[in-house]
Amino acid sequence: MSREITTYASPGDAELREAVKETRRVNKRPPHPALILAVLATAMFIAALDAFVVNVALTPIGSGVGETSLSKLSWILNGYTIVYAALLVPAGRLADRFGRKSGFLAGFGIFTAASLGAALSGNLWVLVGFRFLQALGAAVLTPASLGLVLTTAPADRVKHYVRIWAASGSLAAAAGPVVGGLLVQISWQWIFRLNLPIGAAALIAAARLLPSTQPHSDTRIPDALGGALLVVGVGSLALGLVQGRDWGWSSSTITTIFAIAALSLILCLARSARHEVPVLDLKLFTNRVFAWASVATLIFYTGFGMLLLGLTLWLQQAGHWSAIETGLGVAPGPAMVFIASAFAQRLAERIPVGVVAAVGGVLVAAGAAWMALHTSGQFDYASHILPGWMVAGVGVGLAVPTIISSATSGLAKDRAATGSAIVTMANQLGLVLGVSVLVVIVSSATPGNSAHTFATAWWAAAGLIVVSALSALGITSRHSAMSAA
């Protein structure tokens, strides 16, 4: 009898246990998408911030590591940008294939650990090495984070969530000098120490809140040789742009570097056109919105890179402002970004998104033009700089989140991380190009002609951003345009 009871009771117990598990699973509420967005936007802000935060801190860092050569110190900036730009697309491709949560946690973990190493560095090249590692982590977490935004946002809020994510990166780009100027008042190491508590808290929150995404069904490793060619090509292009002035634009070294970049990128494109699992998915560019958004991003950030660094240098050279004064002088522009970004969401519900982005670009160009028109030997921040810079901040808030959200919202979910990586790479290459062009223009200034030189640079930035605004008109899909009409 007892055996018979045991035989019949066991299935019931198993069913009861399964029922309890199912009840617990149902009753466990998933985290609110806004909490997930907060974690992802925080990570994006910190990663983007580190690309700009050292702009006003090179001199204090040089004093700390015993180096005074500006060309050598510039590698603290340029090394990060080159590695970040070169690795974005391969990292995004791998995140699409093998899971975005794992990629995000790994990337953010590397970034945070490398920040500790940077803070402890007492030698310039050791610091540059840890900056390389920071850029590696940022390149992994950036596309994975946007992919997670796209897959966790409510269906009717995807573009709104992407705008917030993009605005966090834009705000970081403009706020870098502010944060850097404040932190170096304590010590230059705090530029990197700040990442540690924020990174640790965000990692814990991400591990608990982020859903475990399923890897793409095609688990073949993306084209390794194509990825290597892309890294060499983008890295060489960025290196040539960054070092062209110091090494000589017509020197054999720079010529060779650009030749390597061109050959590597051509071979990468050729392999990507034929390979079954390409690292650079050329089919993405058959999406008209994505293609125009990539072009608009590249041109916009070329102009914006000239505008932002030019402003920083002008405040320090013409106004003789300290790092903290420069940071606070830059602050009003980024303060407008989030406000304008929220306004852009409402505008996009009434008029085509391409028009919203184009209006934003025109405002940035108008701000640059105001600064160029009022640049003279007499320095007056309140009337010559501030009005134009605040208008430019509004334009950034309208243009950048709109372009990025439009670029990725129409992509298939299994290509979201790769697509965001390509757009972000265009962003970084634009910044490198803009900084390089600005350095060429400013370095040509004579002692009594600096005002005219900076005005020329800001006129060039305004012209580029107008071209970007025209390109942004192409991001309005035909369906959206018909709906708006």
Order of helices and strands: HHHHHHHHHHHHHHHHHHHH
Helicity range of the residues? over 70%
Mean pLDDT: 82
Termini separation:
79 Å
Number of helices: 20
User: How many β-strand stretches?
Assistant: 0
Number of domains: 2
Structural class: mainly alpha
Could you say what the CATH topology of the largest domain is called? Growth Hormone, Chain: A
Q: Which stretches are poorly predicted, pLDDT < 50 over at least 5 residues?
A: 1-11, 22-27, 479-485
- Largest sheet, if any? none
Question: What shape does the CA trace take?
Answer: globular
Strand content bin: under 5%
Q: Can you describe this structure?
A:
With 485 residues, the protein is mostly helical. Helices cover 79% and strands 0% of the residues. It is built from 20 helices and no strands. The protein folds into two domains: 31-222 and 279-484, MFS general substrate transporter like domains (Growth Hormone, Chain: A, Up-down Bundle), CATH 1.20.1250; 223-278. The protein has helices at residues 2-27, 33-49, 58-65, 70-73, 75-98, 100-120, 124-152, 158-183, 190-193, 195-209, 224-247, 252-274, 288-317, 323-330, 332-348, 353-373, 381-409, 416-443, 450-472, 478-484. The radius of gyration is 24 Å and the shape is globular.
